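Go through this fold for my students:
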Amino acid sequence: MQTSFDIAIIGAGPAGMSAAITAAETGASVVVLDDKPKAGGQIYRNVADSPLQDPNLLGEDYLQGKALLERFENSPVERIQGATVWHLGDNGEVLFSKDQQTCSLTARELMLSCGAMERPFPIPGWHLPGVMSAGSAQVMLKSDALVMDGAIFAGTGPLLYLIVAQYLRLGVKVKALVDTTSKSGYIQAASHFGGALSGLPMIQKGLTLLAEIKRAGVPVYRFAESLSVQGEEKVTALQFNCGKQQHLLETEHLFLHQGVIPNLNMTRSLGLEHRWCEQQLCWKPDLNEWGQSSIDSISVAGDCSGIVGADGSQMMGKMVALNQLYRLGLIDREQRDQQAVSSRKQLSRLNSFRRFIDTLYRPIDQHRIPSQADTVICRCEEQNLEQLQQGFAQGARGPNELKGLTRCGMGPCQGRQCGHTVSELLAQWRGERVEEVGYYRLRSPMRLLNLTELSRFNRISAANPPEKKVLAGERR
């Protein structure tokens, strides 16, 4: 009797769902664990059960996830929603929390598809109440149809323009769009124009969004620099420069965004090898062409492998699943390679377009690497730039030493909001490359646990899956 699953997939976004469908079609025993009540990830959140009266207003790209979700829900896959994974072992062990109890299972192959997170935007005042990320605006919109009237959106990248357009379609007033895309970004992106042509439909969508925002009469401030949030107890205004002119816009709600980066806490806690990607200015797991990591039985797909977008994530998920099926002996090498041909070609085209997008919307240094002494770096432990510089002066040469001296990175987010900033700051102070500086050393558990939860232990096996009502997110 088989007690271990063939494949355990962490995350039910585009990559996780695509991988699960592919693996289950071949007869593998697959379990998918996801921390949300429903599958879909961030991009397809609530796509089949939107709180909006007219979900079409969110756009075609959002709605196309419904077909993928339906295939996933109709596939013979064990689905455990509302499961917070807090430990993964290189032996295939998975420990997670659900309904206030600890559960465990094992799998011969693990696939991580934990998605992305928004890049930190460490400018003066970014920690004040009323300042959130553009991604947060989308979560509130998709989950609860909640919006903030009269907000300012500031930063760069397609997601920023998309959420502004979605607000406008819903009749929500947007006070201003402050665009930090640099002039040099446009110039340098021109060298990747050939790759841009491979993503011509996406360029057309972007231009359509910008035209939609312009028609709505939203003030757009281009090439903005030197952003700082004003306020004492909460945000009251955003100050910035456009050329030689300084602007001060009053607001109670500010949404910041300058791209997304891989969510690394699981890959880091596993001890997988990582590398610094200069193109996307972030750390990435070091993977082969099939998404296989430095631990053979663990693969990574989707945006947590490096930002590839929703379509690219689906293709990566399929390719990773095919390779894991090959490793399990369920298909041969020729079957794997033949079934991956289409996904590989499409992913190659998307990666060419990605170079154009990454260059165009590259966040400028002053909005990634703070220079003002009182700018908060670690929001959890309220450590600012001056305090980190003092720790460096005391001999903290790497992220872990700086953490020990200042507590920067010790909070509940485990360095998600400060890790990349600390790596770049230390590289600047040391006069070295970021890859020579490294990143925080992370360990399990990846979330706070209590003794009551640990005392309630439940073992799940492929031969004895959890009850269906538990899989649907209900309490037993």
